[in-house]
Protein backbone atom coordinates (compact mmCIF):
# COMPACT_ATOMS: atom_id res chain seq x y z
CA UNK A 1 0.00 0.00 0.00
CA UNK A 2 1.28 3.46 -0.88
CA UNK A 3 2.22 5.55 2.16
CA UNK A 4 -0.22 8.43 2.63
CA UNK A 5 0.07 8.98 6.39
CA UNK A 6 -3.59 8.06 6.42
CA UNK A 7 -5.65 7.84 9.53
CA UNK A 8 -6.77 4.51 10.82
CA UNK A 9 -10.47 5.16 11.12
CA UNK A 10 -11.09 2.34 13.60
CA UNK A 11 -8.55 3.94 15.94
CA UNK A 12 -9.64 7.52 15.09
CA UNK A 13 -6.00 8.65 14.93
CA UNK A 14 -3.93 10.28 12.24
CA UNK A 15 -0.23 9.79 11.65
CA UNK A 16 1.03 13.14 10.36
CA UNK A 17 4.28 13.83 8.62
CA UNK A 18 6.74 15.94 10.63
CA UNK A 19 6.16 18.80 8.16
CA UNK A 20 2.37 18.72 8.52
CA UNK A 21 2.66 18.47 12.31
CA UNK A 22 5.03 21.45 12.39
CA UNK A 23 2.77 23.58 10.17
CA UNK A 24 -0.35 22.83 12.23
CA UNK A 25 1.36 23.42 15.58
CA UNK A 26 2.86 26.67 14.27
CA UNK A 27 -0.59 27.90 13.24
CA UNK A 28 -2.05 26.91 16.61
CA UNK A 29 0.75 28.66 18.48
CA UNK A 30 0.06 31.86 16.53
CA UNK A 31 -3.66 31.59 17.25
CA UNK A 32 -2.94 31.02 20.94
CA UNK A 33 -0.78 34.16 20.97
CA UNK A 34 -3.53 36.14 19.28
CA UNK A 35 -6.04 34.99 21.91
CA UNK A 36 -3.68 36.01 24.72
CA UNK A 37 -3.31 39.38 23.01
CA UNK A 38 -7.07 39.86 22.93
CA UNK A 39 -7.33 38.93 26.60
CA UNK A 40 -4.64 41.52 27.33
CA UNK A 41 -6.58 44.11 25.36
CA UNK A 42 -9.73 43.39 27.38
CA UNK A 43 -7.77 43.53 30.65
CA UNK A 44 -6.25 46.87 29.58
CA UNK A 45 -9.65 48.32 28.69
CA UNK A 46 -8.96 48.60 24.95
CA UNK A 47 -11.54 50.21 22.69
CA UNK A 48 -14.19 47.68 21.55
CA UNK A 49 -13.65 48.05 17.78
CA UNK A 50 -9.92 47.42 18.26
CA UNK A 51 -10.69 44.18 20.11
CA UNK A 52 -13.23 43.18 17.46
CA UNK A 53 -10.67 43.65 14.68
CA UNK A 54 -8.27 41.33 16.54
CA UNK A 55 -11.07 38.81 17.15
CA UNK A 56 -11.83 38.83 13.41
CA UNK A 57 -8.15 38.10 12.75
CA UNK A 58 -8.37 35.10 15.10
CA UNK A 59 -11.45 33.84 13.26
CA UNK A 60 -9.58 34.13 9.95
CA UNK A 61 -6.61 32.25 11.43
CA UNK A 62 -8.86 29.46 12.71
CA UNK A 63 -10.56 29.23 9.32
CA UNK A 64 -7.15 28.93 7.63
CA UNK A 65 -6.19 26.18 10.10
CA UNK A 66 -9.47 24.35 9.38
CA UNK A 67 -8.96 24.61 5.60
CA UNK A 68 -5.46 23.17 5.82
CA UNK A 69 -6.52 20.32 8.10
CA UNK A 70 -9.61 19.53 6.01
CA UNK A 71 -7.63 19.47 2.77
CA UNK A 72 -5.12 17.08 4.30
CA UNK A 73 -7.91 14.87 5.63
CA UNK A 74 -9.61 14.67 2.22
CA UNK A 75 -6.35 13.95 0.37
CA UNK A 76 -5.33 11.19 2.76
CA UNK A 77 -7.97 9.57 4.95
CA UNK A 78 -11.06 10.21 2.82
CA UNK A 79 -9.37 9.26 -0.47
CA UNK A 80 -7.91 6.07 1.02
CA UNK A 81 -11.19 5.03 2.63
CA UNK A 82 -13.03 5.53 -0.67
CA UNK A 83 -10.37 3.47 -2.49
CA UNK A 84 -10.85 0.80 0.21
CA UNK A 85 -14.63 0.79 -0.38
CA UNK A 86 -15.46 2.46 2.93
CA UNK A 87 -18.10 4.80 1.54
CA UNK A 88 -19.37 5.73 5.02
CA UNK A 89 -16.46 8.19 5.12
CA UNK A 90 -18.51 10.35 2.74
CA UNK A 91 -21.30 10.73 5.32
CA UNK A 92 -18.70 11.57 7.95
CA UNK A 93 -17.20 14.21 5.67
CA UNK A 94 -20.62 15.73 4.92
CA UNK A 95 -21.37 15.92 8.66
CA UNK A 96 -18.01 17.56 9.30
CA UNK A 97 -18.56 20.12 6.54
CA UNK A 98 -22.03 20.92 7.90
CA UNK A 99 -20.52 21.60 11.33
CA UNK A 100 -17.84 23.83 9.82
CA UNK A 101 -20.42 25.82 7.86
CA UNK A 102 -22.60 26.76 10.84
TrEMBL record:
Q: Which Pfam families match?
A: Trns_repr_metal
**A Gene Ontology biological process term:** negative regulation of DNA-templated transcription
Q: What does the record give under GO molecular function?
A: DNA binding; metal ion binding
InterPro entries found in the cross-reference section: Metal_Tscrpt_repr, Metal_Tscrpt_repr_sf
Q: Which residues fall in a coiled-coil region?
A: none
Matching PANTHER family: COPPER-SENSING TRANSCRIPTIONAL REPRESSOR RICR, TRANSCRIPTIONAL REPRESSOR FRMR-RELATED
Query: What is this protein's record name?
Result: Metal-sensing transcriptional repressor
